[in-house]
Amino acid sequence: MLKEIGRLGYGAKVIFISAYQEFSYAKEALALGAVDYLIKPIEKELLLSAVTRALSLLREESEERRTKNKLAQYEQMDRKTKLEELFDRLIEGDIRIEEAEEKLRLFGHRFTYPRFSVMLLEPEPQTDIRWGEHERRLLLFAIGNMTEEVVAREAAIVLFRKGDRLCAMINHSRATSVKKLASEVVMHAAGYLKIALSAGIGEEQSGVEGIRRAYRTAAEALNRSFFADGGAVVCWAEENWESRASAKELGEARDRVLQAVLKKDRGLMREACEALLESIERHAGGSREKSAMAAYGTLAEWADGLAQIGIAVEEDELQRHLDKLQSFGKYPQLKAYMLEAAEGIFQRLETGGRESRQLTDVKAYIEQHYKANITLEGAASKIFMNPYYFSSFFKKHTGMNFKQYLTEVRMKQAIKLLLHTDLMIYQIAEEVGYNNARQFSDMFKKHSGKLPQEFRASGDGKQP
């Protein structure tokens, strides 16, 4: 029995209880791993002692196995981390090919297949405010586990995170369809995780030296999923991604929208907008970045057109447009935003001429009277506007509330006086509208990070 237990590799502990008193039996039992060999009739103390020793041995072996398993896990994790770092350096071009191949040999990682591909995975952005970095990390972890399980059935895979994307470096045979594997991953993401997952597959390569190009082309492919529905799989294909609308065509489409706006023809404007958005898509040639910049260029040209008729568009408003355009995960979102922006410009034209003049008058009033104790109510009365409406009106057109804007004007003037006059601090405070020098100093430090005396001593802002 002991021989069979040993052969099968069971971790049992055996105590023999026998009426046979031959020494040879006991000797053989102990040699084969028995904890003890007890002779009947059994003494209770001897049995308890043997059981205690058996339990102790089981605990020791269990702890030893746990320790070995932990060490193996740590070793595996360390090896995995080093492999991820190696391939990250390869795709960034941060390591020589010969050095990378040598490191792979040292890791004992043998790629037996002739082909290399890169698959980039990106979940559709989650708009729920509860989705923080921790939730995104868990989501990518789940996607990564699922991807490794699918791909490992047919190929070798090294998977790691690149920003909000997952990069899967796949070593596979010629018969393996990486697109089919990606489609399966995308399908599982929709079915099990209830998310839309896009995949970009790069150009196949025949060696480690091609991994950087495989990654770059996978990134291009993934960017082109911007124009596809959620859950798209896009394979790199250079010949299909050329721009099909020239810059001249794009410019003409933009101008038609602006002319429709200036004619105050809303129906014509919407029709021209739809045509423009088709032109942007054809001009982008599948590129997310190119479509965002074409849309931004459109808004900038529209702003110039409005400026020519006296309707100003603030620079920070254009920057907010750019940030928003670059944040969209899919082209339909960008289209909806541009249609909304066109409608906003139409509405601005209807009221914008009057509002622009009102804003100019208010700014001139502040520039002329910042030394006095001017108030929001007083400024509102200058353009015959209700103070509550004026507050919203001013914030919409300047990006600041009235008090912030007044402080900005006063601080700019204070800086000029500090740098180019010898006036005392209390005199400068009075010059820019503060009766209390301490209040002025506190406000100046909050604005510039330094007290007025420190600012003047440091010479900040002086031209060389």
Automatic annotation (TrEMBL):
All copies of domain Response regulatory, residue ranges: 1-55
Domain annotation HTH araC/xylS-type: ranges: 360-458
Ranges in a coiled coil: 57-103
SMART domains in alphabetical order: HTH_ARAC
Keywords: Coiled coil, DNA-binding, Transcription, Transcription regulation
GO biological process: phosphorelay signal transduction system
Domain of life assignment: Bacteria
Record keyword Transcription present: yes
Any one GO molecular-function label of the UniProt entry: DNA-binding transcription factor activity
Protein name (Swiss-Prot/TrEMBL): Helix-turn-helix domain-containing protein
